# Entry
Amino acid sequence: MECSIKRRDGSQVKLRAFKEFLSKNGTIIGVFQGSFGNNPDLDIIVKYKEKGKRVRTPKHIHWAIDLLIKKEHNPELTKEFIKYLIGMWDGIQPFRTKAEQQRCDLRFTDPEHLKVFEPLDKYGEYPVEFIGHVIELMMLEEKTGNHEAFMFKGVLNAIYNDEDIFSIVSRASFRG
# Structure
């Protein structure tokens, strides 16, 4: 997968993903070299491409809305999935070396771990496999680039704790 990435100086550069994950539904998730945060050499950028669509950058608001839709249809299983994602947040460690970044191993979202949540695929836009992979990669990106990262846990807790829609959307779309 290739795409244009905006650099720190505002210039655009065309990059090729150094790692790709193919979802069961044909969506490709690409991991690109980033240049921001506390560890710019270890930074990553996550993008995805669905069949017949352009390359996109996932945002917190995308998966948050999808989880809200899933929760409306199957609240118990969605809360279990969110609890799993919160545990994933607690277990993810930032990249410490270039080799770790280039391997970009997904430790929490292999098919075995996500199988129990697959009934949620009937609801919303995204399958749990895609949500899991994207969230794990974005958590790695957030934790590697900022030791005081907070977005994921705040959004996940807000959805899990049944906060009002305004609070959830505000957290998921916050631009610090």
In short: Helices lie at 60-73, 75-91, 98-103, 111-114, 128-145, 151-160, 165-172. The mean pLDDT is 92. The radius of gyration is 16 Å. The chain has one domain: 2-172.
